[in-house]
Amino acid sequence: MPKFIVDSVANGVVTLRVPGSNYRNSFALHGDPAAAGGGHALLEGTRVRGTIHAPAWKVDRVELGGNYVEPLFGRPRRMQGTILSVNAAANELTVQVGYEATVKLPEGYAAADYKVGERVGWDNIEMPTFELQTQPAPAAV
User: What is the pTM of this model?
Assistant: First the structure.
């Protein structure tokens, strides 16, 4: 699961930095981040783990180009990368785009038609979401 650094949180949107890159992308918060964080709020400068879910409106197989997210700053509009896993039941692909993102395929596309290792690019129909990884409760001493 990817690691991010919280850049800012406001109005249900979290902006995350990706260590070792120039990415500073914004995502709609999914769920209750305080509950997922074991009661800790998302604080600027803290490292967090979580999943990115991106709703595509069209998906293209690509041959050339690297893994990327456009733009570098702000809401991700275009993403491209290598398929890491296929979830046919949920009609989703997990793709390495500069960080891992799970893309929900639109109507008319079938995840079963894609294979791990293939390269795809897609345009997001709306702002992708970030779901904070659930932190285990501290062990009793």
Answer: 0.86
Has residue 28 been placed in a domain? yes
Q: Which domain holds residue 54?
A: 3-131
- Torsion angles phi and psi, residue 129, rounded to 5: -110, 155
119, 68 contact by CB (below 8 A): no
Give the whole-angstrom CA distance, residue 94 versus residue 86.
Answer: 6
Tokens representing 13? Answer: 């949107």
Euclidean distance between CA atoms 64 and 44, whole angstroms: 36
Q: How does pLDDT run across 85-139, given as a tens digit for each residue?
A: 999 999 999 999 999 999 999 999 999 999 999 999 999 999 999 999 876 444 4
Q: Quick check: is 47 in a domain? A: yes
